[in-house]
Amino acid sequence: MYWTLELISYLEDAPWPATKDELIDYAKRSGAPLEVISNLEELDNDDYPYSSVEEIWPDYPTGDDFVFNEDEY
């Protein structure tokens, strides 16, 4: 299983919290690439509801990961 920013972006608007099966269904209905569906199928727990993208991909970059000095602009 591997995630990229492009692949995980297909799940950003998913109806959170969601189980593995709900996320797979959402990915299929939203036209996500096969890699996204394959990655979701590799998740461990079928019944556990995931509350966000960060639970699926712990390394998902957040706004705090980007250094941007607003005072410069």
Automatic annotation (TrEMBL):
Pfam family example for this protein? Answer: DUF2795
**Entry protein name:** DUF2795 domain-containing protein
Species whose genome carries this gene: Candidatus Cardinium hertigii
